[in-house]
Write a structure and sequence with these properties.
single chain; 498 residues; mainly alpha; two-stranded antiparallel ribbon; 18 helices; globular
Length: 498
């Protein structure tokens, strides 16, 4: 039997809620800013970093891949630890680990230690992210307040994404690549220092953590990500890629078998049978596949085809993040009051499909304002509308004790979209690029991403209909017949009373 106790006296009972203050929300959203911003800030510094250490592109890409693998691989474990050990505690540990790893990266004497530091940063992000999502579900008083909070999350993520390119480029040019990791350390401390004072303590539960299950899911996801990455770069028939992909699938199957028999499973398998969890995860995967894919191909087109300088290229993509920020912060709460989750999620995915599909109009001498800008705005509006509702949907109907791991499942789906989904789009584009027609490869990737978003909108609509089944028609007829019979039985009594 499990027991519960409070981490500290600022919450009187499990699941207690209190209004989300601006400072509390800023600290929780700051963790997401670290996770998203660290990718783009570091990406801007990669060329200078490669020159400093004298490494080739194949080695250099592990600075990014190492972070993505550890982040995606440890998310499920991070979510479960947050539910068991207390979300504030795990949040603080995650941000502290991220900050310590930033020190390690800043002082790294070689590429190997830098890659190890990026792995630790990914683990720290995997601990803090699900804990932050779980705390929103734990302390917010209503669904509208949750939606507002996750709208702020989306806005912070968008600002970190677009600002990361600019900040990383400026710091690298002025102070060198080490200043990028020093900036991440400073940002981590800004989130870490007030965390204990402003975040709710939450509940500590004396239940075991399924370590074998954690090892299986972590290694399985890592093998899949590395296998897809290797296959996209070197060919899907290479033995190393095939071994990794098969190993990843087998490890995840073993994880499911393990969870069926574990006394305290890492992730309750019933969670994956919930239509709302499925709809939230599917939306996250598609949303990140399409939008991160667009952000990947857009600079290649702007710089490689239209010959934009890097800084102008970054500014040209910024409308995507601006649209997300505006819609998620100010328009999403209005939409949530007027419409249910199903049309918001589905129309959000349709707008993302329209935005990515708009880039099919791009040409070798394309016009930014007619061929690119409208697509960026449409996709940004779709993301800004769908992201807050996606996250609240992923937590809907679940016990508060599972909010952390449910948030981890949703974030894992997002990261798999940003990793595996985008790599598949890159592989599709490369299959055409090899014939020397680079723009046609980009167009094929846009078409696939838009098509997946449209199919996903239909799938999400179907899943959410399962979550709210209509009353059976026969049952309604039986109820009507019973009411008619009651009226007939009481009629003589009323007549006798007259």
């Amino acid at each position: 039997m499990s027991t519960e106790k409070l981490d500290s006296p600022d919450l009187s009972e499990p699941g207690a809620s209190r209004p989300l203050s601006g400072v509390t929300l800023a600290v929780m959203a700051g963790a997401l800013g670290l996770d998203v911003g660290s990718l783009n800030v570091v990406n801007a510094a990669l060329p200078s970093l490669g020159e400093a250490f004298g490494v080739d592109t194949a080695t250099l890409q592990w600075v990014t891949t190492a972070y993505a693998i550890s982040f995606a691989g440890f998310l499920i474990l991070g979510g479960r630890l947050a539910d068991v050990l207390g979300r504030r505690r795990v949040f603080i540990i995650g941000v502290a680990l991220f900050s310590a790893a930033s020190v390690m990266a800043t002082l790294a004497p070689g590429i190997a230690l830098l890659i190890a530091a990026r792995c630790l940063q990914g683990v720290g992000a995997a601990l803090s992210g699900p804990a932050a999502i779980g705390m929103v579900g734990e302390i917010s008083g209503s669904e509208s307040e949750q939606t507002r909070a996750f709208g702020i999350f989306a806005a912070v993520g968008a600002a970190s994404g677009s600002g990361g390119f600019v900040l990383g480029g400026a710091l690298t040019e002025l102070l060198g690549w080490r200043s990028v990791f020093a900036a991440l350390l400073c940002a981590g401390l800004v989130v870490l220092i007030p965390a204990r004072a402003v975040l709710p303590a939450g509940v500590v539960r004396s239940v075991p953590v399924d370590i074998p299950g954690a090892a299986l899911v972590t290694s399985g996801l890592a093998a899949l990500v590395v296998g897809v990455d290797f296959g996209a770069q070197h060919g899907w028939t290479r033995p190393f890629a095939l071994v990794l992909l098969v190993a990843g699938v087998l490890l995840l199957v073993a994880f499911v078998v393990r969870e069926r028999v574990a006394r305290a499973p890492l992730t309750p398998l019933a969670l994956f049978r919930s239509p709302t969890v499925q709809a939230g995860a599917l939306t996250g995967f598609i949303l990140y596949t399409a939008t991160v894919g667009l952000q990947f191909f857009a600079p290649l087109y702007l710089q490689g085809v239209l010959h934009y300088p890097p800084l102008l290229s970054g500014i040209a993509i910024a409308p995507l993040s601006v649209a997300i920020l505006v819609v998620a912060t100010w328009i999403s709460p209005i939409l949530n009051r007027r419409w249910s989750r199903t049309p918001i999620l589905c129309w959000g995915l349709v707008l993302i499909a329209a935005g990515v599909g708009w880039w099919l109009l791009t040409t070798v001498d394309g016009s930014y304002w007619t061929q690119m800008f409208p697509g960026l705005v449409l996709a940004g509006v779709g993301v800004g509308a769908a992201f807050p509702v996606m996250t609240t949907t992923a937590l809907e109907g679940l016990e508060p004790t599972n909010h952390g791991v449910a948030g981890a499942v949703n974030v894992t789906a997002q990261q798999l979209g940003a990793g595996i989904g985008v790599l598949l789009l890159v592989s599709i584009a490369d299959s055409v690029n090899q014939s020397g027609n680079e723009l046609s490869g980009f167009h094929l990737a846009y078409l696939c991403a838009a098509g997946v978003a449209l199919v996903g909108a239909a799938a999400v609509w179907w899943l959410l209909r399962q979550a709210q089944p209509a009353p059976p028609k026969d049952q309604d007829q039986d109820q009507d017949q019973d009411q008619d019979q009651d009226q007939q039985e009481t009629s003589p009594d009323r007549q006798a009373g007259r």
